[in-house]
Amino acid sequence: IDLREVMALAAFRGKLPERLVVIGLQPERVEMSAELTPAVARHVGKVVTGVVARLGSWGHRLLPRSVTAIA
C-alpha cells in the first residue's frame, strides 16, 4: 500500500485531514537493506529541518532530545 492508496481510502471513508503535508526523500534505488544509502543519509538533516519548520509553523514547540521539557 502506498500513500496514494492511503489517501484514497481516507477520502472514501470521509476521513481526510484538514491539512496534509508530505515530506520525504526519493531514493535512487529501492532494495532490502538496514543501512541508508550515502545519498539519503546526506539529506536526512534537511528532511528533519523541514519537518521541524512545518510543525513549528502549526504552533508545535519542538525540543531536541537532550533538552528536558518543563511542564
Detailed description of the structure:
The chain has 71 residues and is an all-alpha fold. The chain is built from two helices and no strands. It has helices at 3-12, 38-57. The longest helix has 20 residues, at 38-57. The protein is flat and about 40 Å long. 0% of the residues are buried. The model has no long low-confidence stretch (mean pLDDT 87).
Report the strand count: 0
General form: flat
Order of helices and strands: HH
Low-confidence stretches: none
Overall mean confidence score, pLDDT: 87
Termini separation: 39 Å
Indicate the structural class. Answer: mainly alpha
Assembly annotation = single chain
Helix content: 40-55%
Biggest sheet features = none
Strand content: under 5%
Radius of gyration: 16 Å
Give the count of helical stretches: 2
Notable traits:
71 residues; single chain; mainly alpha; 2 helices
Question: What is shown here, in short?
Answer:
With 71 residues, the chain is mainly α.
Write the layout of secondary structure elements.
Layout: H1 3-12, H2 38-57
